[in-house]
Design brief:
Length: 702
């Protein structure tokens, strides 16, 4: 194991340089290297001062998360930092890039800290469901006060170097050469006669319960379902209630416990799954992204307008085309209205809005698309219309331009086939609102070229989205799995559960919003029309989506009509009981011979909805629609409000046990609608092998 830590002496000042690309994560090799460097310093002649910095793009971005699943290999970072802080000469750490988690804990153990002006500094541990484990919860409040410390720990987002300076987290901001800046700062300290200044010697003013309460409720809104905030509060409380070393012992227990929690395992799974979504590195030299400067968008409706905003927000110029000026005016007015809301909320300045609007050039002429590098079609969901548009694009767009469609259900192979360049055609499935939602399904057809896939992944990153690869099928990954999940939710209403009971169970499980409330939000007509247009996708079971049908027949389309699964007062999104609808659904159940039950439990609701979804996920994996279970988990947590702390449906299935999932599927199939509960062959096979989705994936990659 190469030593990533080097030590040099410059004018009596020891310079420790850490170099472990890509992000200087604190691994066992780094801890060993730091420990060895500190031993040399402690055993040899005392230097005048010590400067610690990192090479590469960033200071340490935290502990090496990939080591969290194994037993800690010594030396322990806590001990290394105790020795670092104990040095008899002054020490300074130079931060740059993203100094995060354990990286900041290293900095806290230095006697002084300086930061390059663009550094971001923070404690993202809460997003991984863990309590800091290198005594950060004891040193940070000693340095910047308990309130600011808890604010950073419970928020999880990094602050700018300037904010860190204002908080007292760093002592100065620097520019230019980091090594020279560190040595110059040390020379100044020495010239001023400044010596060691140990953070651990500080005292912490206690917080009142009211102050803690404010921080607690803010964090609960931000990090739903994660208990880390409570543990962080306990750890920081120890900083004012106990001496340093006893506080450190409290933190150790809390931190080590948090690492074992199911939430943390789920969040760490997502950390790596999100970084593994791109298939491009495995594609080899054929997958070099094409250059994309200017974008064309066809259709300025709900999606087209949102997509235009997503690009303009990233500083990318857009040509926005619609059938006529009136349609364009409507689309642009909606874009403006959305931006105005951001200004009102203080998220954007009026100037920034004008800059972004200036990047969007409206047109009704296809000729204006001649020079764009990539076009995204977002017109009505109609195959013939989309094919007609692709014929036109084929005629006007320059050779090599990528031609994308935002269709949510259509066969993109059939769209590609009408062009003379099917290799350039791809699906870019954005989610509504497209300027907000992080997920982008990148749908590869049978003919899409590797470099077009690479272009899509690079573009997704540029506009701050997470791209996930899907092959062509009805609904792609997300909507295809959503269908059986929603089917069970609404069938449970037919069987006697109230919409509030169904949504309540799903929300208690961790979905951001129950699916029936989602239907009301999106419009009951949307799903009904998709099912009408695609009868081949529908189940033969007579109870299939009958509640939706009842609502649709009554014109109760959800929030936009004030009535759907719930009743809404004018202008309100508050869900009220819609007794009339529930009565009609009961009548429909009677008509179909479905006995309504009063014994439907929260468990039955979550199991039926989630097991149905997982079963479809297993099919999607076996058919090769999704590359791996982790991709499905990313789709669900970044596009469908699936609780991150559950890790996504496939990870959750592994935790519950695939045998339990299969037994549930078989049980519910015996209970009713057997046609809809056919177990996926992959699931059956994995259960017979005592395996998991995770192990299946690992076995495919050797
Ligand atoms: N441990 C292990 N690997 C890490 C890592 C970490 N802390 N941080 C990043 N990596 C890896 C990524 O997995 C990725 O690997 P890959 O190239 O093989 O896919 C590579 O480094 C580059 O990461 P990104 O693709 O995320 O690069 P970006 O430039 O987009 O982002 C970053 C850089 C902002 C540093 C981002 O990686 C990040 O947020 N990292 C996690 C930071 C974090 O959570 N730190 C806290 C760790 S917990 C801790 O410190 C506990 C402490 O109390 C002891
Ligand atoms: P919309 O009805 O809001 O907008 C469609 C726009 O296309 C309108 O502005 C219309 O004037 C324009 N248009 C129609 N024919 C045209 C033509 N020949 N040339 C140029 N423009 C034309 O529709 P929405 O909701 O934006 O959907 C667009 C596409 O995005 C559909 O394929 C839909 O399935 C898909 N989609 C929709 C999502 C949603 O939540 N609304 C989510 C993901 C995908």
């Amino acid at each position: 194991m190469a030593n990533p830590v080097s030590l040099a002496i410059d004018d009596g000042i020891a310079v420790i340089t850490v170099d472990s690309p890509p992000v200087n994560a604190i691994s066992v090799a780094m801890r060993r290297g730091l420990s060895a460097a500190l031993s040399l310093l402690a055993d040899g002649p005392v230097p005048r001062g010590v400067v610690l910095l990192c090479a590469g793009r960033t200071f340490m971005a935290g502990a090496d998360i990939s080591e969290f699943d194994s037993v800690l290999v010594p030396p322990d970072l806590r001990q290394v930092l105790w020795e670092f802080e104990s040095l008899a000469c002054p020490t300074v750490v130079v931060l740059h890039g993203t100094a995060l988690g354990g990286g900041v804990e290293v900095a806290l153990a230095a006697h002084y800290r300086i930061a390059e002006r663009h550094t971001k500094i923070g404690f993202p541990e809460i997003t991984l469901g863990i309590v800091p484990g290198a005594v950060g919860t004891q040193r940070l409040p000693r340095l910047i006060g308990a309130e600011a410390a808890l604010g950073l720990l419970l928020d999880g987002k990094p602050v700018s170097a300037e904010q860190a300076l204002a908080l007292g987290l760093v002592d100065a901001l620097v520019d230019g050469d980091l090594r020279a800046a560190g040595i110059a700062f040390m020379q100044d300290l020495l010239a001023a006669g400044k010596g060691p200044r140990r953070t651990r010697d500080g005292v912490v003013e206690p917080l009142s319960e009211a102050q803690i309460g404010v921080l607690r409720s803010k964090s609960a809104r931000q990090h739903r379902g994660v208990i880390t905030a409570e543990l962080d509060i306990q750890a920081v409380r120890a900083a004012w209630e106990l001496p340093f070393e006893q506080g450190a012992a409290v933190e150790r227990v809390l931190s080590e416990g948090s690492l074992l929690s199911p939430e943390s395992k789920a969040l760490r799974h997502l950390f790596f799954a999100e970084r593994a979504v791109s298939p491009v590195p495995a594609m080899g030299p054929s997958a070099v992204a094409r250059r994309v400067g200017r974008i064309g968008i066809i259709g300025s409706g709900t999606m087209g307008g949102g997509i235009a905003m997503a690009f303009a927000n990233a500083g990318i110029a857009v040509v926005l085309l619609d059938v006529d000026q009136a349609a364009l005016d409507r689309g642009l007015a909606m874009v403006r209205k959305n931006y105005a809301l951001s200004v009102k909320r203080g998220r954007l300045t009026a100037l920034a809005v004008e800059q972004r609007m200036a990047l969007i050039s409206p047109t009704t002429q296809y000729a204006d698309l001649a020079q764009v590098d990539l076009v995204i079609e977002a017109v009505f969901e109609n195959l013939a219309l989309k094919q007609q548009i692709f014929v036109q694009l084929d005629q006007v767009c320059r050779p090599g331009a990528v031609l994308a469609t935002n269709t949510s259900t259509l066969d993109i192979n059939l769209i590609a086939a009408v062009t003379g360049r099917p290799q350039d055609v791809i699906g870019l499935h954005f989610f509504s609102p497209a300027n907000v939602m992080r997920l982008l399904e990148i749908v590869r057809t049978d003919t899409t070229a590797d470099d077009v896939v690479a272009t899509a992944f690079e573009l997704a990153k540029r506009i701050g989205k997470i791209g996930v690869l899907s092959r062509v099928c009805f609904g792609f990954i997300g909507n295809r799995m959503m269908d059986p999940y929603a089917r069970e939710a609404e069938r449970l209403v037919l069987e006697g559960a109230s919409p509030a009971q169904v949504d309540g169970a799903l929300e208690a499980f961790g979905m951001a919003m129950g699916i029936l409330a989602v239907f009301d939000l999106a419009g009951i007509d949307v799903g009904v029309k998709v099912r009408q247009a695609n009868p081949q996708q529908n189940s033969p079971d007579p109870t299939f989506y009958r509640c939706d049908a009842v609502l649709y027949e009554q014109g109760w389309l959800g929030q936009k009509t004030g009535k759907g699964y719930y009743r809404y007062d004018a202008g309100s999104r508050e869900r009220g009981v819609h007794a009339e609808a529930e009565n009609l659904m009961a009548a429909e159940a009677a008509r179909l011979g479905v006995a309504q039950r009063t014994n439907i439990t929260e468990r039955e609701i979550t199991e039926r909805c989630l097991f149905a979804m997982i079963n479809e996920g297993a099919r999607i994996l076996e058919e090769g629609i999704a590359r791996c279970p982790g991709d499905i988990d990313v789709v669900y947590t970044s596009g469908y409000g699936f609780a991150r702390w559950r890790g996504g449906p496939m990870f959750w299935a592994d935790q519950v046990g695939l045998d339990t999932v299969l037994a549930g599927i078989e049980k519910y199939g015996r209970q009713a609608s057997p046609a809809d509960w056919e177990p996926a062959p992959l699931l059956v096979r994995l259960v017979s092998e005592g395996s998991t989705f995770t192990a299946w994936q690992a076995s495919r990659h050797g």
